[in-house]
Design brief:
The protein is an alpha/beta fold. It folds into two domains: 75-281, Alpha-Beta Complex (Spore Coat Polysaccharide Biosynthesis Protein SpsA, Chain A), CATH 3.90.550.10; 304-363, no CATH class. Helices cover 35% and strands 12% of the residues. The strands form three sheets. Strands 3-2-1-4-7-6-8 form a seven-stranded mixed β-sheet, sandwiched between helices. It has a three-stranded mixed β-sheet with strand order 5-10-9. α5 crosses α7 (263-274). The chain starts with a helix and ends in a 10-residue tail after the last helix.
């Protein structure tokens, strides 16, 4: 009897030790995972090279979704545009650099479409592949022409034949710096994180369009619709929601006043969250002079901001500089050939911008204030 009792105690102790061992193994595993996640977030915010990170602060792209080596995933390049001179000259420069980079090694760039939401053809139809769609009904955009963008995509996706499985949504003021690979995969679109899109700072407004039962505000990524690389089937689902949310935001005075010129960007971010999409955030997607000082390791140069400097190379943002380049100075026609280079001391990104514009304008036929615009 005593031997059987001793054996029972041994079994009990063995089970106890096993239980304790399993507990500590599980604890260490969970702790390791948590620490790795924290390290990833720290790396993202500490300026680590984004080319080495395919994560955002919320979602890590699973291995099953990663692009297999040497497999091309071509995307269709699409930008929305108007028939105004301001939009035309930017579109011509953008298309020039698309053609220069499209077929280089490392590129996943497919075909190109300028989605023209003027409702009628213009004189660039033979120069740039173009699909004409209708603008919103008169007065519906209330002077905010960007509201035509989601409506244009809805029409284009419904009426056109798009061979590629993925789409890059771009804008006329984008210049391709180098061949662009497909940065998005399967259910994980890729987007550029904008510092001024801050859903968590506008909770009361966001909740008008993204109710609490849909999830936390942090589900909404700090993005706009461009640049975004996304599967066509996902964009087909998002686009109508994006359009409807944009119109609702514009018709809400508080939202319209608060979001202003980035309202349509917020609408795209909210529409994505309503469909459960989260994005791979790529800081290397774009360089935006004058705030980004260099273009190295960036794919797109976005010249939305004015660049104003003294002749000593000092930034005078908000004040017209002795040297300047601002696309808004050319609302009624294209910039002239051979723009003057910035003074010594101006950041590389601004110098590169001017050089790339000068190269494009020197090689695009009929570049002047009348023909081609």
């Amino acid at each position: 009897m005593s031997g059987r009792k001793d054996m029972t105690q041994v079994v009990r102790y063995l089970l106890l030790f096993l239980s304790i061992g399993v507990f500590f193994l599980t604890y260490n595993l969970v702790a390791t995972i948590i620490n790795c996640r924290k390290a990833e977030v720290r790396n993202w915010t500490s300026g680590v090279n984004p080319r080495q990170l395919l994560i955002d602060p919320v979602v890590k792209m699973p291995d099953s979704a990663k692009k297999t080596e040497n497999k091309r995933l071509p995307f269709h390049v699409a930008l929305t545009a108007t028939d105004e001179p301001y939009s035309k000259w930017q579109s011509r420069i953008m298309y020039y650099w698309y053609k220069k980079k499209k077929d280089l090694p490392g590129s996943d760039m497919g075909k190109f479409t300028r989605i023209l939401h003027s409702g009628k053809p213009d004189n660039l139809m033979d120069e740039i592949p173009t699909f004409v769609v209708n603008p919103l009904p008169t007065g519906l955009d209330r002077g905010y022409v960007v509201l035509n963008r989601p409506w244009a995509f809805v029409q284009w996706l419904k009426k056109s034949t798009i061979e590629e499985e993925y789409i890059l949504m771009a804008e006329p003021d984008h210049i391709f710096l180098k061949p662009l690979p497909n940065l998005g995969h399967e259910g994980y679109p890729a987007a550029f994180p904008f510092f001024y899109i801050r859903p968590v700072e506008n909770v009361e407004i966001i909740r008008k369009f993204y109710p609490e039962e849909m999830g936390p505000i942090t589900d909404i990524d700090p993005i706009g619709n461009s640049p975004v690389i996304i599967r066509k089937v996902l964009l087909e689902k998002i686009a109508p929601t994006w359009m409807n949310v944009s119109l609702k935001m514009k018709n809400d005075p508080e939202t319209d006043t608060t979001f202003g010129w980035v309202l349509e960007m917020y609408a795209y971010a909210v529409a994505s969250a309503l469909h459960g999409l989260q994005y791979i955030l790529r800081k290397d997607f774009m360089s935006q002079p004058p705030w980004d000082l260099e273009t190295r390791n960036k794919f797109i140069l976005h010249y939305t901001y004015g660049c104003d400097y003294t002749l000593k190379g000092e930034l005078t943002y908000g004040k017209i500089g002795e040297w300047r380049f601002d696309k808004r100075a050319y609302l009624n026609g294209p910039p002239p050939l051979n723009l003057s280079l910035p003074p010594r001391g101006v950041p590389e990104s601004v110098v590169t911008l001017v050089k790339l514009i000068n190269e494009a304008t020197a090689n695009i036929p009929n570049w002047d204030t009348t023909e081609g615009t």
